[in-house]
Amino acid sequence: MKENEQGFTLKDGSVYSYKKPKFYHMFTNVPKDIIDLGSFLGQKENTPWIGAAVVTTLALIPLDQQFSDIAQELGEPIGLADDVRYIRVFGLELIPQDINGAVYYLGYGLTPILVGGGFYLVGLINDDYRAQNTGSELVEVLISCGIVTQTLKRITGRESPGPAMENGHPGGHWTPFPGFKEFQTNRSSYDAMPSGHLTTYMAALTVLITNYPDNKYLKPVGYSLMVLLGFEMVSSRVHWVSDYPLAILLGYAIGKNAANRRIIKKPKMDKTGSIIEPKFKTDFSFNHTSEYTTAGITLTF
After folding, report:
1. 3-state secondary structure of 271
2. pLDDT tens string 283-296
């Protein structure tokens, strides 16, 4: 292990190594996030996931109004259909006034900042490079998600459920490329797709899961809260269900790329410090002739 690196051994014997991050990395890595997102979307192996997000979105759009009505009916008795309310502190909507606001806060931009700041501070106190990098990444992905989703919102121009119902537009009206001033003045009329809250939440959760894969609570708790957040935003007429597939894909890609960029993965080691070799290796090969294509597999023990 290099002197400027810290290694953390996982339960499977592999090692995640981290370098001490600079404070400014949470800002300077943002362009890399956006470039890496473009690379992710252009990679052939990711085509099935991109296709699934697109197909799911198109399939849900005709059903959006129906899902919205059902969600409001289910959410009203438990207080998830009301408008979110916060107590402002120094001009910021900081303290939720009800359960609806508390759930909506999960995807609020201030949440990754607070959590990220906590990780970064604990990392500094304990000289823990992994915690410092995690905290830095949480702020980084918040900025990256904001840039990406705001750009897409200004392209799609989809009306949110609240104003759509007031204006008699079931499923929401679409106004691609609304004017900048019009968008800023009437944001809820144009900023439904994709969901910035869900994109940010998915990116932050992916950062945590990627850096702490041995934590058995992150996935079940994190994904359960994501479902609750998604339901709350439909029930309170903030988003349509079809605003979510693209948001989840974008959040995952941004979070995964940001976290993996800083992890130096080492081979699995045993208790003596020796590298654990795989029991066997698998190699696939394909041979082409004028008439046939043959496939072969080689196992090396």
Report:
1. coil
2. 544 455 555 545 45
